[in-house]
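Run log, item B.
One chain of 503 residues. Sequence copied directly from the ordering sheet:
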Amino acid sequence: MNLFRKKPIEVIVASACSTEAFYDTPTLKRSLSAFQLVTLGIGVVIGAGLFSLTGKVAADNAGPGVVLSFVVSGIACAFAGLCYAEFASAVPVAGSAYSYSYATMGELLAWIIGWDLVMEYAIGAATVAVSWSAYFVKFCHQMNKDMPLQWALSPFDSETLKDGTVIHGMANLPAAAIVVLMSLLLIRGTKESALFNTIMVAVKLMIVLLVIGIGWAYINPANHSPMIPERISEVVNGHTIYHFGWQGVLTGAGMIFFAYIGFDAVSTAAQEAKNPQRDLPIGILGSLAICTILYILFSWVITGLAKYTEFHGVVDKLAPVATALGHLPKQFHWLQQLIVPAILAGFSSVIMVLLLGQSRVFITMSQDGLLPKFFSDIHPTRHTPWKSNALFAVVVGTAVAFLPGNLFGEMCSVGTLLAFVLVCIGVIVLRRTNPDLPRKFRCPWVPVVPIIGALLCLGMMAFLSPDTWLRLFIWMAAGLLIYVFYGRKRSNLASEPSKQPRV
């Protein structure tokens, strides 16, 4: 078997543009405009990275230098985003980086990146769900209905109360519940999901702008001094972990890179976009530009209102905004009351879009024969991959309920970075192998921009913890076993032409 056989790009493009469904089953419905794609990107980008990981990275890695971590990640994303925009305009299909790799680097690498994207989106949804749970605990406290903490923490997590009492988790039920609810919304329909997301984006942007506008006047300059605290180190499980200093800033950049995965999730909606060649680059680059500016301003305000050392404990790290707003004068108490329910609503849309992206990647891999047909079954009237959505509601919901909360963030970041590296390389390959392919958007200064993007992503990957790399290798090894014993033999490219999608 040829592990590097490529799916002809003409077949990919033609099948995506065809109005006829694959394998005589219902097809996805084109209902998303350029504006909805931008809001889709903002809906998933502005989430746990801004409202939760800001506190964790500030406390554990970069101090006030978390602002610089966002700058570094934003620059790397800009290079990768330009590459994504060119690919999305040239190959407008739901598989995102998986389909791009299939056309440029062959089936084995396509499988690797597809399996990686599954991890990226599923674990991304899990990360946000854990943060959603932390804010839900604060919301219950606001309503004078304190939730028992043991039912908002996994069995591997614990929380020390102010009186010294240690609460050990039993199961993170709020996190599991929101995953199931958002999966049910996706099953309901793409148009309904897009409307929900647009409303939630409006709520999130209002809150972000209020926090920046009001909080800016009450920043304590002493909280930003020093911007990069002196580097310290400690040994954890036999590994030396560095905090603060420039190494802490770069480590933080790799961790919060998770916060930017929204713009590549936009590309997974290609087969539901009305005019994908024109609208996908707008959705990708537009949402990325808006969110990067807001990230930098927001993290500056949060670390200016509260000293980074205040973001301690599981709940405080995952819900730093509520902690920071506690430093505002009493006349802004209403903002403290409003921020938590607004963030809960905003996180819900993040989880929804990530689960949407995951299912769309599985659809494409299934249609290529690399996964069972189960994953590409479309509901005859709702035009959604309801079986795949239901399966991952169970899988992701169970994971967030019983696995440690800090497991997910770095895992998602390393998966995202790997995907970006292959997309950057793929743009160079596609320019050489298909120079005349129509592209509504062209990445400037190829190969310089893609090379810089790939190197920046590889650099941030290098600063992630050894445990994260170990988990990545275990996940990839499991994926390769599935490919060797299932996908390789059942791939459409390995079968007779009659099993190819009709275009």
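Observations after the first pass:
- Residues 27-493 form a domain with the Amino acid/polyamine transporter I fold (CATH 1.20.1740.10).
- Residues 107-142 form the longest helix (36 residues).
Flagged for discussion on Thursday.
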